[in-house]
Amino acid sequence: MTNPFATEADLCAAFLACVPATWQAYPESCGFDIVLAHKETGAQIGIEAKLTLNAKVLVRGLLRRVFDVVGRDEKDGAVWAQLLGEIRDEIGQPHPPTTATQEN
User: Fold this and answer.
1) Separation CA 88–CA 20 (nearest Å)
2) Sheet of 23-29: strands edge to edge?
3) What is the dihedral of CA 29, 53, 86, 71, to 10 degrees?
4) 40: closest CA among 16, 17, 19, 24?
5) Model confidence pTM above 0.70
6) Which ranges of the chain have pLDDT less than 50?
7) DSSP letter at 96?
8) What CA dihedral angle connects 103, 96, 9 and 39, to 10 degrees?
9) Which residues pair with 34 in a beta bridge?
């Protein structure tokens, strides 16, 4: 199936045109492409626009959610990061370089 959107901005514009009146949309907000806030309940949804879903996008989303929940400095965060690192290895995604592994 061919993607009808040339850019993520085009995708966001089409999405914003369809937002129900009960939601307020905030483009490019809080690190998301769009944040939706329900006008009555205050519930919020952060949206990242992607033209294609791939393993890199999935792993990035998982890592972001794990760090939001358990924090970067907590023991549980380290366990989740290790698990997600193993998932990255399985799907062939490279790890970002660390200070210890970077060549000068």
Assistant:
1) 37
2) 23-29, 32-38, 44-47
3) 10
4) 24
5) no
6) 97-104
7) P
8) -140
9) 27, 47
